[in-house]
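Pilot study result, target chain (234 residues):
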Amino acid sequence: MQNQYSRTQLLLGAEAMEKLHNSRVAVFGIGGVGGYTVEALVRSGVGTLDLIDDDRVCLTNVNRQIFATRSTVGQYKVDVAAQRIADIDPKIAVTTYKTFYSPATADQFDFAAYEGFVWDVSQYSDINELYVVSDLLITDYSSVFFDYANLKRPILFYMYDLAAYRDDIRGFYLDLKELPGPIVETEEALIQAIPQALEQDAYDEKYQRFHARFNALDDGHASERVVKRLLETK
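Predicted structure:
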């Protein structure tokens, strides 16, 4: 008997379709990139979706976002998405979160269903070991990038509140032009930047200048030199 996924099953096979049906996917941010991601997941037969976004549809979204139409302006994007998903396949289980994921909202999310894919390491005791096993660092204004730069691996600076942080909250102790990686200010830009950062050689000329300025003494003997200097001081 045919169903709406029959053509997809011809390409992927029954076993793959069953795996998709039993899969659960969380999409953080369903704007320009995330919206089309959700659409593809739904039409591919993924059985369970978590949609996370605190934004509402605005008129400027209409030219590029799949959930944005004149009739949906002002509505929460996750609500519009959930209705569209129900129209495509009412059997898909959808959970919506009208929030952005951040340290302040992290407790609202239970990642147990994503074990093996999403790892909560916020309670891990040694961040240096996390540096070593990671391929990419995404940070905002934390100083962790100074240490991570020793690995010469890609760094992305996700500064979603850049103007407010710069002008009203704290300001910067370093010229942002010196940072060893690109700055992105939206979830859509971040999603696009991740594969680009992993595919390209991150250790470019600017990264090398940063490393020479801030990491030259991080050669594994810095503490040894400090102790020797202290013992030599009378």
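One observation from the pilot: Strands lie at 24-28, 48-52, 93-97, 137-139, 155-158, 183-184. A full batch analysis is planned for the follow-on phase.
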